[in-house]
Structures are given as C-alpha cells and as structure tokens.
C-alpha cells in the first residue's frame, strides 16, 4: 500500500510539473504576443509622430486658387469613365463640374473647400534599418499651370532620415524635381518650408525660385500659408483608393485622343502608387537621387533673376547719377556749350550735322522696333487622320520672340502664345534705357570724334540682340537628335523642319508631307525676322554710320572755358555760329598815365582750336585763324 501511495505521489508531482510547464508556455506566448502588439502599436504611433515632427509648412502665391484637399472631394464629385472597359489603367475619374477648358472645377471646389478643409497625406517607407523616408502627398482639385492644365493634381515632398536624423529632401516639380541637403532647406525647427507654384503646384525650396526652365512657374510667399497645424495629416496606407491604377481627372474618349492629351499635359495624373511609373512610390531613394541637386550658387542666381528688374533699375539710377556727376564736372571745367546736347549741333550741310541727323533717325526707328516682333515662326497643319486639336485651319504662330514678352510658343489646344519661362528678359527695356543713356552721355561733348565713338558703340549694342537671335536659330538644327534606328518611321519631321530653318535664318518657308499609319497630311512652315528685328538692324546700322561721319568730321562744336586737351581740338573747326566771343582787349593807356608794374602774363589761346598763341602773334600757327587785336 505504501508503495502505491509513493507511486501516486510521484505521478501527481509529474502531472503538476506538466501543468506548470504548460502554463509557463502559455504565459510566455501571451507575453510575446503582448510585446508584439505593443511594438506594433508603438510603430503606428511612431509613424504618426514622425510625420507630425517633420510636417511641412506650405507657402502659396497670392493668386493661387486650389489648396491641398481630401481626395474624397474628387471621388464625391466625379464619375468613372474608361477608354477601354477591359483595362483598369484606361479608366479615369472625370469631375462633372467642369472641363480642362474652363474654370468649372475650380469654382465648385472653392464653393465647398471650407467643408472639406485642408488635408495632407503621409507615408513612412523603410529603405533599411538605418534609413527611412517620410513622404507627404498633396492632392489638388485642378492644375491650372501656365503650360498645361488638367483635372486633379498629385504632388509630393519627402524627407530622408539616416539613423533617425534628417539627411536630405526631395521636392516634386512636374515630371522631375529637386533635391537638397537638410542644411540647405528653409525650415521652422524640423518643419520644412515648401513654396508652391501658382496653378501647377510644383514644389520649390525658395520663394524666389521657379524662374529657370520652361515651366513658367510663378512662386511667392505672398499668399496663403498652411502651417503644420492648419491641415489634417492622414496616412496613405489606409486609403481604399490607393490601389486605383487609372487617372485622377479627365483624359479622353478614345485611345488616340488620350495619347494626345498626355502629350499636351491635359490628362489627369496617376495616383501616388503609379506616378512616374511607380518610381516615386516603390523606390523613393532612387527617385530622389536622380533629381537635380540644389546648391548655394543656384539659389543666388535664382534670387538675382527674381529681383532682376529691381536690380536693373538700381544699376540704371547709379549710372545716371555717375553721368550727372560727369556732366557737372565738365560744366565747371569746360562748359556745356550753347546747345547742351551735342546731338543737336545741326547747322548746314556738313558731316557732323548729317551724322547727328542720322543718329536721331536711328533712335526713332529703334523705338518702333521695340514694340514689334523680332522673330517669328508660323505653321499650318492639314490632312486626314489628324485630330481637331492639331488642325490649324491656316497659318498660326508657333514661336514668337520680341522685346516685351521674350520667347513665346503656341501649344496646340491652347488659346495662343505662352511665354517660355516665368522670367522674361526685358530686352526692350535694355535698349530703351540704353538710348536714354546715349542722349544723356552726349551732353556737353565739344568734339565730334568723341561723340562719334559713343554713337558707334550704341549702334553695336542695338544690333547684339539681332545677332544672338540669328545664332540661336542657326543652332536649332544641330540640337535636334537624329531619328533612332529602331524607330518605326524613317523620317524625323522635326529635324527636317528645324534644319531648313537653321540653314536660312533670315527667313523662308517649307512644306513637309506626313505619311504615317492612319495619317496623311502636310505641315507648312514660314519663318523669318519680324518687323521689329529688321527695324533694330536698320537702326543699329544707321547709328554706326552716324558715328563714323562724326569721327571723319573732326569738328569742335563750341569753344570750351579752358582748352580741351586733345589733338583733335587743334585740327578741329568751330562753326561760325558756335565761335566763342573773343576776350575783351585791355584798355590802351596814355603816356601821361602812370605805368603800373606789369602783372605776370598768362598764356593767350586761339579761340578756334584752343592752341597757345605766341606773344604778339597775328595768327594761329596751328589753324591759321587771324588773331583780332
């Protein structure tokens, strides 16, 4: 019996040990589960906290009409259309409140924007254990850029963290973007500043950026500011629409029109997962590394471009002040002459008078040239299989260059010429100010040779824009690449057309016949110097000729207070009407009058050429003028 009891005790102990280990195992599993749950909860919280820590501050331009909004706005006010119902990536959400050719979507958005508020989406991407990327995605109801417009707009900025420390950033700009080190970013603490261009919503690192390139982006910090606590920050991971492969905006009703809309920038954008062929989503580091890198020199150059007009006016005022000082100094030393402006010395049929007349004519012609096109390229497209957007119905401007708007191009489907780049060099202002400087600089010049040199240099400066235009046109043919061997077509129409233009830059016309699959037509092109270009060329030549005549004339326009220290003065001729009055002769003293001691004689100078006369000379040995007693 005792043995049985002992055996039972042993079995009971073993069973108790068994349940102990079972309970221990369950406890361990429970603890591990709790730890994992807490960790996951911590990661979720950490993701939100991380996004909050670096949330951007957005600066908008004063005339901006759309701001970051919850993407549900677009879904609530759109209907889905598909070009091909069998393929999801041909579908698009078309906002039924307007089209790309009107402001219907913008007006509707503005009427309901307060009810939706402002929303920015975020996403945390783990490149490795040491590298994280925080992406901030913004959706806009409409893209009304200078060069393109379309429904919907997705843009993004990202911050790269190395070992939990911010390292560099990348900002999206149209199909490309810009990267910068963390030290180069303007920020408030850890909150980066993003300057959003008007209409296109491209993101920039400075409020004075956007002047470079052809995008015509207008950036500024003079409008609405969305601080990091002014908008909702939502994660992208939980959005039901994140996997939508189609377009967020109107595209077209056919495949051909869809291709055309994509080329012209009129198709709605793809969603965050699919922008730039998915590169921005699947490989944010690779996408960021491929972008153009900012530097301090670039920022300085952009600042100069942004403030160019102010700087130009400031420099002009300084030059005018210096010219004024020179005029004042000459007035005190030599005098300014009876007509003050030497350009006005016109008296009779002589070389210096003809030169001055020609210069005045050249200035008038140049002024007319400032307000007319300097160069134009026109085109006309007709034929079968060509969509209505590309049909022109006659000759229309393709490219226009003038001194007011700079370079302008016409994009098919738009209303007319659009400036290339928001920075426009005021060439007309340059030339106009230069003509004013010329007139001011001729004040008080006594010698035709000196006046002539000023004419020549100003005439050359007027012709410089004309020369630069011709050089640019001649270079057009060489910058267009040849057609790739693997291409389906054997003809590079663009190269043929531009080659014809570059080979005859002064002007011409050509017709190119197009024969492709489903398309038969012709492209007529005319090009040449505009009226303004020809006027500037003629004005520059006339002013140069005027300068040459003045130099040949070798004339001194008026007698200076003291002799002009120049060899030209000795051989010059003063017109009779401009001759100085001879100095008053001293009174003759009688023999009875007491002779005063002679004062130290000063030199006597010829009133014609300024040369020094010998004592008791009856004529000037330099010019032969008789000396009046």
Which short descriptors sum up this protein?
single chain; 629 residues; alpha+beta; 2 domains; 7-stranded mixed sheet; 6-stranded antiparallel sheet; 14 helices; 21% strand; disordered N terminus
What profile does the largest beta sheet have?
7 strands, mixed
Radius of gyration: 40 Å
Q: Kindly report how far apart the N and C termini lie.
A: 170 Å
Structural class: alpha+beta
Annotation, overall tally of beta strands? 22
Integer count of domains: 2
Helix segment tally = 14
- The percentage helix is 25-40%
Shape by Cα distribution: elongated
Mean pLDDT: 82
Low-confidence stretches: 1-8, 18-22, 36-45, 482-489, 568-572, 577-587, 589-601
Strand content: 15-25%
Lateral strand order in the biggest sheet: 13-4-5-6-7-8-14
Report on the structure:
The strands form 5 sheets. Strands 13-4-5-6-7-8-14 form a 7-stranded mixed beta sheet. A hairpin with a 2-residue loop joins strand 7 (165-173) and strand 8 (176-181). The N and C termini lie far apart (170 Å). The protein has 2 domains: 54-306, no CATH class; 317-482 and 491-552, no CATH class. The relative contact order is 0.08. The chain is built from 14 helices and 22 strands. With 629 residues, it is an alpha+beta fold. The radius of gyration is 40 Å and the shape is elongated. It has helices at 2-53, 72-76, 104-116, 255-263, 279-282, 284-289, 296-306, 308-333, 351-370, 427-441, 448-479, 493-503, 531-553, 567-571, and strands spanning 57-60, 78-82, 91-95, 119-126, 131-144, 149-162, 165-173, 176-181, 187-188, 191-196, 203-204, 225-226, 232-235, 292-293, 375-384, 396-402, 406-410, 417-419, 507-516, 519-529, 604-605, 612-613.
